[in-house]
Amino acid sequence: MIWQAEERLRRPIPQDPVTRPGGDGDGPNKPDVKRPDTNELLKRMRRIDPEQARRYRQRSGE
Amino acid sequence: MNPSLILGVQRGESGYNKPVNRLVGIETEYGLYVEGRSVSDQVMDAVAFLRSCPFPAVKHWDYRLEDPRRDMRGFRVDHLTVDPNDAQIEREHPVSLSEREVRSDHVLPNGARFYNDHAHPEYATPECRRLLDLIAYDKAGERIVQACAEAFANRTRYAVRLYKNNTDLHGSSYGCHESYLLQREVSFDLLAMTMVPFLTTRLLYAGAGKAGVEVNPHPRVPYQISQRADFYMDIMNVETLYRRPIFNTRDEPHAKMRHYRRLHVICGDANMSEYATALKVGTTALVLDLLEDGWYNTTVLRDPVRIAQSLSRDPDGKWLVDTDTGVVSAIDIQRQYLHEAQKRFVGRDAETDWLLNEWQTVLDTLETEPEQLADRLDWVAKRQLLNLYVESEGLSWDDPVIQALDLAYHHIDPAEGLYYALVEQAQMQTLVSENAIAVAMEQPPQDTRACIRGLCVQRFASQVETLNWERIILRNDDQTVRLDLSRLVEGDLRPLCLRLTEAPDLTTFVKLIQEATR
Questions:
Q1: What's the mean per-residue pLDDT of chain A?
Q2: pLDDT reported for residue B9
Q3: Which residues 25-54 on chain A approach chain B with CB closer than 8 angstroms?
Q4: Among B163, B345, B398, B460, which is least packed by CB within 10 angstroms?
Q5: What is the ipTM for the molecules in this complex?
């Protein structure tokens, strides 16, 4: 059985010509990236131990 | 799970997507933090970590075919240089285990290798032929390593965190390497001429971002694009532990030496973003396609190491670089490769077209509004996160918490890591589903020789004497059987793998492989 996976690309392959960013107007467009729920992100970030990077030491690898 | 499940859309033989057109793999050394333990304990901690692995595995890796000191330029070095700080730790804290015990090799049912490399748990994906398979197997590695972390914590009562990054932010680096099989007829000179400018400028979209500077910190910058660029010391050499190059010249194809090379890329960052991984590997594979198609680059960068470091340390810059023909934009260097690839490969298959479009979009957007790439590129996403915190808490970028947050971006525990906080909120584009990742944790790719390795682990583990990338040695009815996989590197192996899956016993299994390799 071969799996016809529906998730080959969750982001659809672009079918249309790629639009150049920045638009054709006088100035750069406002970024259209959705704003995250900053409260949730900040909550998780505030849980991070601020000393963690100071304590984090590793052997050198490849 | 049906063992013949295979990731990806099947379009029949003629429509088989093959955007990477070659065997590719990613090997990631993970940062290992065990609460209350020091760096001098890290080798033993890594051994204990590997011993906690809850997955079935064959543990007899065959090192006899490895030759990491062989250089593509036609010589072999006497030894590989070791990081002096690391050598000192080794002298002061010797480990009493054998080399094999320290390595703690595991070959997993999905065909991956999982072991302890220089005190870092390292997961090497099975060989893949398709980009999205590679992404799924790379993410499967994160899930496997995290499952080991949970097993280790339960067994030892130590809290443990694993980071998919490349630095401890205090000057010690560890790698995320990529492997690409290519035809040996591509000469070393053309390969190096073409890859050095490409790899030097690729960091603009492949960088994972880093707070601060670790080596030669002048100019001091609060944030840079690449984790790894600080550690480049040479344009090219065979080293991996110290004096790390942009272009690694190790000549170890893990396939027939007469016919193949392996491009061993060690200058890249470990990406959390699936999109960044796909773009990084996909574009590199396309450049190799160009070389195999007869094209090569002629632009020469003046001092690529300095260029890489200055690009990395100037995330808001114009990214101008010195070349033999004058000053040009690093984005335009990338565009030279892109335009050649568009001319030759557009329309080849759906994934190649996706890759060409995304490559162009990313280069254009980097040039105009890089912040729009926060849902795709790690360095942009992380910078936005850190900036949010700086502004919200009224901190400076020098505050120690910034590096703690940098580290947390790479924490692979989905409940804790900051990259996963963005994924949870659908702020990062993902390319493969959790279902595909779950399959990749258990089953090998069905179209490469990794399928044979994975099936041996699943079905004949007790009869495997040793194995590695290109050979499996089995005991069958008191006879030693050597399966040479070094030729099974081209073409779609799905039909063979299907027959192997259905083989009733080891004798039939072996016969099928011997027929395929005859």
A1: 61
A2: 35
A3: 28-29, 31-34, 36-38, 40-42, 44-45, 47-54
A4: B398
A5: 0.93
